[in-house]
């Protein structure tokens, strides 16, 4: 698929220089489930390498960090749990007798193994809500099942009943790998971890990107972004076109290397670095295996995982040893060591951070660029707004922030149009299709009683593409008034946060 607007001038715009920070929270927990591979198939075009709006992408990146990292599990859960109770359950419209149906009466689909293997399951998810309804039970070939919910009221019910430590089923093949190697790992990690085990690891990581924890590395992060821009410009073809996504993956790894290890991996070298390329390939393969192991031959996928994870762990362990030679350093490894974290836990966390660097922010930015390329008017509005923040192409983001750098990601310091672009991008094309939970108690969802212990998927991407929440839901319309109008119509206090915030945080920011 090649969708290119004739007036695109995007490829030479520098990425913002805070790239690695987005990996620290958003990227940790993404389960590659129904991802859409299309972003890697289209290209960006540029006709003018010195276009004055180079800073748009840079600010997009910072704003992306803000939206994706400024909240967390407790914030999101509290938002849903504080919503007023429903006066009349929405499902009464479909069940006039108001009788709660049993679990066996729930509409059922599946097994749909081929759609998983072909990476088209996200299309089925969208189809089910239109053809079946807001609550769908999916059967798997092994006899188990999963409940998919699409209505914001059911999202509220699920979050309200999360309990102290939310539960979910994810990354089981990673859990198997790490349990089989107790000499390297104390736990299964952030992806497959649940309950207190997950919380023990998660609390070791700093939250958000605006605090002092990461400020000492800001200069290195700006340099990484500069190298990314130079690399992209030097690899334009004769038509000034490039498939930018592979370069974004390299940029993400280089950035997370700085933030975790204070180390340049040379992933952005003009001559490809074999070790960095192998790490990126191992991360891609791991994400694929995590997805396929849920629906295919688990043992076969586990055997595929072993060499990839063995290589990943071997390289990262060598990096950790070098980072520990500088105990006074400012990277994440130094901070974890100073706080008494065990070597096994540090290895687990750093591996999870590198794994997460691949799947979320590069794809989100890729989609954002694609959408804005098709909307030249929006591109121009964003450029004009951002000139006040970064007045020339060489402006550095942190220098423009001044003393209020720790508040850089608050709404008052951001570009409204860039925020709207990111909201709309994440509504249409979030890096994860939704959020998963195992309910710890019986719940009534969509008029059906779901017994405790079932896997439930909150289908936020599909919900965000429904006309009941958004006018012209498949149209990219990054204007704040659009959300406000819907909020007023639906009686929601915020801009449809019940659905939209899920598109922003999905499976990631909740950490579960």
Automatic annotation (TrEMBL):
Record keywords: Heme, Iron, Metal-binding, Monooxygenase, Oxidoreductase, Signal
Annotated coiled-coil segments of the chain: none
Cofactors, names only: heme
One Pfam family linked to the record: p450
One Gene Ontology term of the molecular function aspect: monooxygenase activity
Origin: domain of life: Eukaryota
Metal-binding among keywords: yes
Signal peptide start and end residues: 1-34
Similarity section: Belongs to the cytochrome P450 family.
Protein name per the record: Cytochrome P450 302a1, mitochondrial
Taxonomic source organism: Trichonephila clavipes
């Amino acid at each position: 698929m090649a969708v290119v607007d004739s007036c695109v001038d995007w490829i030479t715009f520098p990425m913002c220089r805070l790239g690695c920070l987005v990996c620290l929270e958003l990227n940790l927990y993404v389960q590659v489930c129904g991802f859409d591979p299309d972003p890697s198939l289209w290209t960006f075009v540029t006709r003018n390498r010195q276009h004055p709006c180079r800073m748009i992408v840079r600010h997009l990146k910072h704003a992306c960090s803000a939206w994706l990292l400024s909240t967390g599990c407790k914030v999101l859960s509290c938002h849903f749990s504080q919503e007023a109770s429903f006066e009349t359950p929405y499902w009464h419209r479909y069940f006039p007798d108001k009788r709660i149906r049993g679990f066996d009466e729930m509409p059922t689909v599946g097994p749909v193994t081929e759609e998983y293997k072909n990476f088209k399951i996200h299309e089925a998810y969208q189809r089910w809500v239109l053809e079946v309804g807001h609550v769908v039970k999916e059967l798997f070939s092994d006899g188990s099942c999963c409940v998919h919910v699409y209505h914001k009221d059911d999202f509220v019910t699920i979050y309200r009943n999360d309990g102290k430590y939310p539960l979910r089923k994810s990354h089981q093949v990673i859990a198997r790998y790490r349990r089989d190697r107790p000499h390297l790992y104390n736990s299964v990690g952030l992806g497959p971890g649940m309950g207190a085990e997950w919380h023990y690891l998660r609390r070791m990581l700093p939250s958000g990107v605006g605090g002092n924890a990461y400020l000492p590395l800001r200069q290195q992060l700006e340099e990484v972004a500069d190298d990314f821009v130079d690399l992209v410009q030097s690899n334009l073809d004769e038509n000034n076109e490039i498939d930018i996504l592979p370069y974004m993956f390299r940029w993400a790894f280089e950035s997370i290397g700085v933030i975790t290890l204070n180390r340049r991996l040379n992933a952005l070298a003009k001559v490809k670095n074999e070790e960095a390329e192998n790490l990126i390939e191992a991360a891609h393969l791991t994400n694929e295996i995590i997805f396929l192991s849920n629906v295919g031959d688990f043992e076969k996928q586990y055997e595929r995982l072993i060499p990839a994870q063995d290589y990943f762990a071997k390289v990262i362990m060598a990096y950790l040893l070098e980072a520990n030679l500088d105990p006074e350093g400012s990277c994440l490894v130094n901070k974890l060591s100073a706080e008494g974290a065990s070597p096994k836990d540090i290895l687990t966390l750093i591996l999870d951070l590198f794994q997460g660097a691949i799947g979320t922010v590069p794809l989100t930015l890729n989609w954002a660029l694609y959408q804005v390329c098709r909307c030249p008017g929006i591109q121009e509005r964003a450029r004009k707004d951002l000139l006040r923040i970064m007045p020339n192409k060489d402006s550095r983001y942190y220098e423009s922030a001044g003393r209020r750098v720790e508040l850089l990601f608050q709404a008052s310091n951001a570009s409204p149009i860039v925020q709207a672009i990111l909201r709309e991008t994440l509504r249409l094309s979030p890096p994860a299709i939704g959020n998963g939970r195992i309910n710890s108690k019986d719940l009534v969802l969509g008029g059906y009683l779901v017994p405790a212990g079932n896997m439930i998927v909150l289908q936020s991407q599909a919900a965000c593409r429904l006309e009941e929440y958004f006018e012209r839901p498949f149209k990219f319309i990054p204007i704040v008034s659009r959300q406000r109008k819907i909020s007023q119509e639906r009686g929601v206090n915020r801009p449809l946060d019940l659905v939209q915030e899920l598109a922003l945080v999905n499976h990631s920011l909740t950490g579960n």
